[in-house]
Specification:
This protein has 227 residues and is mainly β. It has three helices and 14 strands.
Length: 227
């Protein structure tokens, strides 16, 4: 009944929308839009966002084998500014509040060639952006996006044939803020950090130091956090 009522409100505000457009508006406003599943679908929709669904850019980023790409950074040039977001672990992305028009969209992700295209809004179909074949990983630690925003960041680094790696994040004062140790598969690893300390609280703005140890190798990178 709640979905039916919300659909009626959407059609009252936008009588020219088709059933497919109403469905997409509900999906894009839902709280699990970036992580839909077979169990709970897209989650609970949010009415105000559904009414403004025309101004959303929604879709997935995949690699040349159709696998979702996590941590890809999307930059949409809007006027003299830029809107930016990154993909979820399932490869989904969502940008809201975009005026009607035609825009240039750039996609960047570690170990992939840069990708650029043009999109026009409103766009009701889910956009599928396919990156090319993976490049050889650079022998360094990459943090993307950097500085870190509300969606966190993804650490990418080569494994040099090892299966275990340790990540440690230190505050400007040298205090250990967050750490992660585990086993990984493949030639390189990608680890998401949500911008929180080991107690689950958001860290303060500042410049942090990330240290990754893989076997007898150590990689270091500076990371900015902006609140």
């Amino acid at each position: 009944p709640l979905i039916t009522g919300l659909s009626a409100l959407i059609l009252q505000a936008h009588p020219d929308w088709s059933p497919i457009q109403v469905r997409e508006a509900l999906r894009r406003s839902a709280h699990r839009a970036l992580s839909p599943s077979c169990d709970v679908g897209w989650g609970v929709p949010y009415g105000p966002s559904a009414l403004e669904a025309e101004g959303t850019l929604y879709g997935r980023v995949v690699d040349d084998r159709g696998r979702p790409v996590q941590g890809a950074v999307l930059r949409l040039k809007v006027g003299e500014g830029t809107m930016e977001t990154s993909t979820s672990p399932q490869g989904w992305f969502l940008l809201r509040g975009i005026p009607r028009g035609r825009y240039e969209l750039d996609v960047w992700c570690p170990f992939y060639a840069p990708y650029a295209t043009y999109i026009s809004l409103p766009e009701w179909d889910e956009i599928l952006l396919g990156l090319g074949r993976r490049c050889s990983p650079p022998p360094r630690l990459v943090c993307s996006p950097n500085p870190v925003g509300q969606d966190g960041t993804v650490f990418s680094f080569p494994l040099y044939g090892s299966k275990r790696a340790t990540l440690k994040l230190f505050s400007p004062s040298g205090e250990l803020v967050w750490s992660r140790e585990g086993e990984f598969r493949g030639e390189d690893a990608m680890v998401r950090w949500e911008g929180r300390n080991m107690e689950g609280r958001p860290v303060a703005s500042g410049v942090y130091l990330c240290v990754v140890e893989v076997g007898d190798r150590r990689m270091v990178a500076k990371l900015g956090v902006v609140r």
